[in-house]
Amino acid sequence: MSAPAASASPELKVLLRRLRLGQLLDTLPERAALAKTHQLSHLEFLEQLLSEEVTRRDASSAGVRARAARLEPQMVLEAFDASAKITYDRAVLDELVSLRFVEKAQNAFVLGPVGVGKTFIATSLGHIACRKRVSVHFERADKMFKRLRAARLDASYEAEMRRLVRVELLILDDFALSSLDPTETGDVYELVVERHHRASTVLTSNRDPSEWLAMMADPLLAQSAIDRLQSAAFELVIEGESYRRREKPGTGPENTPKQADGSPERGRPRAG
To answer: Is the whole-model pTM more than 0.85?
Structure first.
């Protein structure tokens, strides 16, 4: 019979709680037993404990930032269905996932028809940014315009615009889905000009950027904004079948038809 795991002394419990390490207490006996089994030195055991605590805190703080950014919690890159029948440029996605474009205050357009996973990809970039302690705000474009219109009525417009300008990664979903009136066009111009070369913006759209100009009320402001956006933007074009269908019960990767070797019929998404 193995010896029972040693428990933390009252004095140690007090010290850990004063150092805000009380979360370690729940699993400390088991960790100590494992350390003994693997013959870890005191320093190695301490390093392992602190490393796991840092990982836990990072995950917790990333979750708080993701909720504040209004990101859907399930839309993380790890959960993306790799067997989806869509095509895109893998190199471009890899570059966006690296977040180098955020470090350089560049932009990204995620483009394609309805339902191919544009929002999922954009949201997953937001989650990655949150893990790296980058400030993020996600919002559907039409809702942002409505919110800014309402802010004009209660004198909070300037504060709302400052918040949108300051955020390091602004993700606007379904941009130019419908026509923008003069006020909305002015809001786009203001945001783009203030964020140009200072912060990154991700736009998802069913329309090609060449069509955006026709969707905006003031051609001069629209041209100025779009030129700035495109001057430092990656374009990820996604094509294929609706990704949303795969979210229905019974249509996930575990239900994908298999080949003789057990692999999915269509395999991983290929580069577009």
So the answer is: no
